[in-house]
């Protein structure tokens, strides 16, 4: 299959069997009966009561009444897409998983991205972790990599997961706030859980407000195991690196987008795929021989730690491409059921206590969400391998299994289905030697909670550090209890004193060394046991941790807004549009109204948006199209403030803005004119054709460096 098309693959063909279209069909009941009146219920006289006998009404209403299923307890809001994984470099020395060993092999996938905290109908722009769950439909069975866009997690042991989620979800008495961590219960919990400090650095960084789901990394988080044909074991960490680089929006932009287009990420993914801008990621692995397990200054089983790429480089071995939107959101994106326990020969679990708990949780949650142990029969969840076992019955069973025997061993059924030998693809867990006391304890090797938080913070560029500080200030300013703010600032002091001091100053508390047990805690609190040793990170800076180092020289799929009005310079618009689209960008026209716009050469342009129906936050860059008459129209009172708002907001969010000819008045009346230094993001009429400069500025994503001055 050509990865740049959405030609059918084995999974698409399987889904096709279960798909239907209403085109040119007659309306029927669920029993296949053709309906001849879908407007009126059956009544005793035209003004009389409806009759119980009306099975058509009853069926329609009953089905409607039961259309909703429980949303996911976490990761409720999601967007999905079909695609393909292609192996470019064989991992045959490390694993026997065939989709990772057969060079050039293409495996169908379904990916679901999600926010974690908010409800299904909440905003895409919440400051939150993003889920990045991938179902590989391999010939050996389904393999699910249930990943996130951050490489570490808040907690070290699954037993704390319900506490974490209860703390971050809306508070239980008033169900406020939705899709937000900026409230007392979250920071209360976090301030008492030093192990979360590394993850807090990630969540307070701009990684938590992506520009696009297509511009995020993916991480398997845990160490997993690879096992090769000879039984040799390697620890492995999984990485997905987006071909478009890792980019974010500004926090203020995210807040505005939540109102202007709360489906911003969903729409962006959908439109990109519809436009043929297929999102792509390089898939890579960090490999550690089993015997090197203890070579690190942290524990490979601790999910609050990453392996710096300076210590173990990421080897790129494959490409993930998303190339087809689902046909039906509910049937596919809502009903897809992931589980880190869905593995195949050549891949195995580690004893990471967070992963071990997850292995229970995912099937369990599907039972309540999808309602039956037969959720594997829902088309999106079906393996492309056929299923043969003696599991039977249950709600909504689809498969009709022939034969008399549903047990094993049997002679009546000829002994079928047979166990598979390992040489036939039969799965066998790694024969790992385990011995130990039965204890309810945390390993001492998990006790360092701050060194990688420091590593992350130190690795950020100056604008990234500033954003992180401001995120903490925003979040903690919403915390009503001063003792929680104080405890939190105390935690930050172990990461970076300047960070703690700056946040403390803004949230009205002092930086104090934490005394444990803290007076605000119950006397018998075991919190002291969860405290950390203070260690310095082995390496001081890791380049891969800063988004700034991922910038790629491309404007592929970037959305550029052209502000136009009557009499606009058609030649300049067409010229720029052709050049930008030639580089893969998307141009959308914005005018005072949706009425066709007459240009200076008599042609007409059809705007996609009006100045009131969209906002600068929906675009990566702006072009203020020139032409004397057009500028005059933009300057009339009812347009003027709207255009200036567009420009000022784009400028505030550090976007590239190109002022066309005759737009001097707009420039001078906007905040842009106050700039004191040369700004690579601002391109003006004076410079002649500056398309190249404009393209370069867009490719840099934002001019964050000028933020202090721009927002002054
Ligand atoms: Fe989880 C969903 C990722 C820890 C329990 N999780 C879920 C999804 C993702 C993750 C991407 C959404 C899947 C989808 O799109 O349907 N979860 C993670 C990662 C974790 C993690 C990367 C840590 C490394 N999760 C975690 C723990 C537990 C859970 C420790 C419980 C002990 N997660 C669940 C769940 C969900 C879920 C309750 C809700 C919906 C679902 O499973 O299918 O079982």
UniProtKB/TrEMBL annotation:
UniProt region (Disordered), positions on chain: 1-46
GO molecular function per UniProt: catalase activity; heme binding; metal ion binding
GO CC terms: cytosol
Alphabetized SUPFAM superfamilies for the sequence: Class I glutamine amidotransferase-like, Heme-dependent catalase-like
Positions annotated as active site in the UniProt record: 75, 148
Keyword Transferase listed: no
Biased composition (Polar residues): 1-41
Signal peptide: none
UniProt keywords, alphabetically: Heme, Hydrogen peroxide, Iron, Metal-binding, Oxidoreductase, Peroxidase
Keyword Ion transport attributed: no
Domain spans labelled Catalase core: 28-416
Catalytic activity from the UniProt record: 2 H2O2 = O2 + 2 H2O
InterPro entries for the chain: Catalase, Catalase_AS, Catalase_clade2, Catalase_clade2_helical, Catalase_core, Catalase_haem_BS, Catalase_immune_responsive, Catalase_large_C
PROSITE patterns: CATALASE_1, CATALASE_2, CATALASE_3
Binding site for heme: 72, 112, 161, 358, 362, 369
Cofactor: heme
Cross-link 3'-histidyl-3-tyrosine (His-Tyr) per UniProt, renumbered positions: 339-362
Documented EC number(s): 1.11.1.6
One of the GO BP terms on file: hydrogen peroxide catabolic process
Functional note: Decomposes hydrogen peroxide into water and oxygen; serves to protect cells from the toxic effects of hydrogen peroxide.
Family indicated by similarity: Belongs to the catalase family. HPII subfamily.
Protein name, entry field: Catalase
